């Protein structure tokens, strides 16, 4: 299908799509790495405090790996890191915060900007832990970045005014490069919103008897504009929609109203559940909006899928060659299964605010636990960020002490990483080929830093 | 030629007598002998006129029954009649087997061809296997009519261009010679004029100035001659450059003589280059086989009823800027279905499986994590 190939070229497909397992593994890795770092950093900070007078802070602390066995087992207990689940909850909380923050502006930020910001935040915390970078710092930055990438211009001052607390403009853009880097500089987020508009548009056309059948079904004669219209009008009324406020008189109202209602519900789902859950990582936008439509109005969604993929009556011939009918017949059950998965995930979502119990535990996590296991070397983002951008290195002198600490912590794992990367590269390239001077350079570069 | 004629003049008696009419040069000093390449029997001009004026007739020499025509009679070029005959045969064979070196695959094939040609010539000259060789030759000639003719035309062209070039060069040389002569003449005249000038000035001036005038005159002379010399040098250089460029042009002309259309491999000659006719170019397809605007999930329509979009159609403020609802339709519908059939679960698992050669995928994600946590490096795309 040509539309699928179109999606396969997107960075969302190439870089930001995962299986359930790989997503979990990714989070676990991030959490493990970050926990090791946090423990090491806190220990270093304590040691530095202990020997504040004599030893210099710049000397690298001798350690083999993230978890050294010997120095002080008491500390190990004291530092209690977040689990991946707790991290995810924290991130989700701040995602909801983005929605509220966007609401606070006058006029409120468009949904698409907020949705993009949420996805940025979620993508950011795939490879970073809240323990390393506090979401409180990253969240406004992600939102500000989203206003830029989604072409919704706002001056930084204007934006900073809307952010609660005494956040300055500098605080907001301090982690900007860091965020962009973690996003791998892919700013394109494929949202299901516009797709929903397209689908609703086509449904309205079908209701008016102007809907053309899908290209692969046009020749079957069972699909004509009139027959489709008749089928649409004959649809059974939707069972009670998830939100019950408007469903009282659904049977009597016209099809157009029904579509409009489904549109509204679907949009609500996409705005909330689709953003906070992992569906963006696991499904494509087309699947997301169709799953949401299925939640809002199951018969309508089923009917719409039938117009696209043909009814379930067509027997699948697995042995036959790849005729369009066969492809559709193979596609259909698979797609239905995927949509069901996606819908289940969307339905399982409950907004945090509606659940005071969860809210309470979350407050405890963020308030206490996260406070205690925050990486002390990453608190001052300004220094770290400016170190990355040489042009903005004016304030480097002010942050030398912090960066010194960061260096000693980073260099060893960094060295290890680079060495590993190099090894892999050479192995992939050609085992026999020697690159002269290569290893030397990397070692030097790491030492310098 | 003159030497040949001299030799002929000094020949013995039997040469001087026409074998047909037995008249001798002694009686008829203007007598000329003619031969016919059919049988190479010699006879005098008057005999040819006498016997063949009224149409083809048999050779008058006893035992020779060839039918000869008057038109083919010609003067003998070589003293030895065998040489004459061989030259004729050679010319004829060469005309038929006129392949050129560039038509052959390799030097070896070309050499083989040359040898084969010599062999055919030798066969015809010495009379071995004449019938077979002759038939081969005829067959080849009829089969390769076109290429033979093309090569002949090429040869003629080359010959004519060569001749042209030669006359051109001669002309140039003549012009140069004339110019040099002119130059010399001018120089002489000027010398004379200046001398006269000095003399007249000496005659007119006072006796005390004599030495000064003479010195001045000499100086003027020197200056003039040096100026002339430099001028000459310049002209000569120019001419040399011109000549070089001419030669180069001529060379190129020879090279770019259009290649004749060659018929397919003949049975007689081996090692000819295969003639590759380039495939006719297909019409250019800018989409590379894709059908533009082909969609698999939906058919785009010109109009979709929508209470929200309909006002835009009438709104001149929207339309004035060039806003086209079609664009909106196609984009929303494309996004509605882009990736509907992408099953990320499967495809990512497949990709991870394929990409795990050396564990690149986990490494990449870990690398990204670490790069983001630590303070260096951009996280590389997997």
TrEMBL record, chain A:
<dbReference type="Pfam" id="PF16899">
    <property type="entry name" value="Cyclin_C_2"/>
</dbReference>
<comment type="similarity">
    <text>Belongs to the cyclin family. Cyclin C subfamily.</text>
</comment>
<feature type="compositionally biased region" description="Basic and acidic residues">
    <location>
        <begin position="414"/>
        <end position="433"/>
    </location>
</feature>
<dbReference type="InterPro" id="IPR031658">
    <property type="entry name" value="Cyclin_C_2"/>
</dbReference>
<dbReference type="InterPro" id="IPR043198">
    <property type="entry name" value="Cyclin/Ssn8"/>
</dbReference>
<feature type="region of interest" description="Disordered">
    <location>
        <begin position="400"/>
        <end position="449"/>
    </location>
</feature>
<comment type="subunit">
    <text>Component of the SRB8-11 complex, a regulatory module of the Mediator complex.</text>
</comment>
<dbReference type="InterPro" id="IPR013763">
    <property type="entry name" value="Cyclin-like_dom"/>
</dbReference>
<feature type="region of interest" description="Disordered">
    <location>
        <begin position="211"/>
        <end position="259"/>
    </location>
</feature>
<keyword id="KW-0678">Repressor</keyword>
<dbReference type="InterPro" id="IPR006671">
    <property type="entry name" value="Cyclin_N"/>
</dbReference>
<dbReference type="Pfam" id="PF00134">
    <property type="entry name" value="Cyclin_N"/>
</dbReference>
<dbReference type="GO" id="GO:0016538">
    <property type="term" value="F:cyclin-dependent protein serine/threonine kinase regulator activity"/>
</dbReference>
<feature type="compositionally biased region" description="Low complexity">
    <location>
        <begin position="242"/>
        <end position="254"/>
    </location>
</feature>
<comment type="function">
    <text>Component of the SRB8-11 complex. The SRB8-11 complex is a regulatory module of the Mediator complex which is itself involved in regulation of basal and activated RNA polymerase II-dependent transcription. The SRB8-11 complex may be involved in the transcriptional repression of a subset of genes regulated by Mediator. It may inhibit the association of the Mediator complex with RNA polymerase II to form the holoenzyme complex. The SRB8-11 complex phosphorylates the C-terminal domain (CTD) of the largest subunit of RNA polymerase II.</text>
</comment>
<keyword id="KW-0195">Cyclin</keyword>
<dbReference type="InterPro" id="IPR036915">
    <property type="entry name" value="Cyclin-like_sf"/>
</dbReference>
<dbReference type="GO" id="GO:0006357">
    <property type="term" value="P:regulation of transcription by RNA polymerase II"/>
</dbReference>
<feature type="region of interest" description="Disordered">
    <location>
        <begin position="44"/>
        <end position="75"/>
    </location>
</feature>
<protein>
    <recommendedName>
        <fullName>RNA polymerase II holoenzyme cyclin-like subunit</fullName>
    </recommendedName>
</protein>
<feature type="domain" description="Cyclin-like">
    <location>
        <begin position="96"/>
        <end position="181"/>
    </location>
</feature>
UniProtKB/TrEMBL annotation, chain B:
<dbReference type="GO" id="GO:0008270">
    <property type="term" value="F:zinc ion binding"/>
</dbReference>
<dbReference type="GO" id="GO:0006289">
    <property type="term" value="P:nucleotide-excision repair"/>
</dbReference>
<feature type="domain" description="RING-type">
    <location>
        <begin position="18"/>
        <end position="61"/>
    </location>
</feature>
<dbReference type="GO" id="GO:0070985">
    <property type="term" value="C:transcription factor TFIIK complex"/>
</dbReference>
<dbReference type="GO" id="GO:0006357">
    <property type="term" value="P:regulation of transcription by RNA polymerase II"/>
</dbReference>
<keyword id="KW-0175">Coiled coil</keyword>
<dbReference type="Pfam" id="PF06391">
    <property type="entry name" value="MAT1"/>
</dbReference>
<keyword id="KW-0479">Metal-binding</keyword>
<dbReference type="InterPro" id="IPR013083">
    <property type="entry name" value="Znf_RING/FYVE/PHD"/>
</dbReference>
<dbReference type="InterPro" id="IPR004575">
    <property type="entry name" value="MAT1/Tfb3"/>
</dbReference>
<feature type="coiled-coil region">
    <location>
        <begin position="163"/>
        <end position="201"/>
    </location>
</feature>
<feature type="region of interest" description="Disordered">
    <location>
        <begin position="223"/>
        <end position="254"/>
    </location>
</feature>
<dbReference type="InterPro" id="IPR017907">
    <property type="entry name" value="Znf_RING_CS"/>
</dbReference>
<keyword id="KW-0862">Zinc</keyword>
<keyword id="KW-0863">Zinc-finger</keyword>
<keyword id="KW-0539">Nucleus</keyword>
<feature type="compositionally biased region" description="Polar residues">
    <location>
        <begin position="372"/>
        <end position="382"/>
    </location>
</feature>
<feature type="region of interest" description="Disordered">
    <location>
        <begin position="352"/>
        <end position="382"/>
    </location>
</feature>
<dbReference type="InterPro" id="IPR015877">
    <property type="entry name" value="MAT1_centre"/>
</dbReference>
<protein>
    <recommendedName>
        <fullName>RNA polymerase II transcription factor B subunit 3</fullName>
    </recommendedName>
</protein>
<dbReference type="InterPro" id="IPR001841">
    <property type="entry name" value="Znf_RING"/>
</dbReference>
<dbReference type="GO" id="GO:0061575">
    <property type="term" value="F:cyclin-dependent protein serine/threonine kinase activator activity"/>
</dbReference>
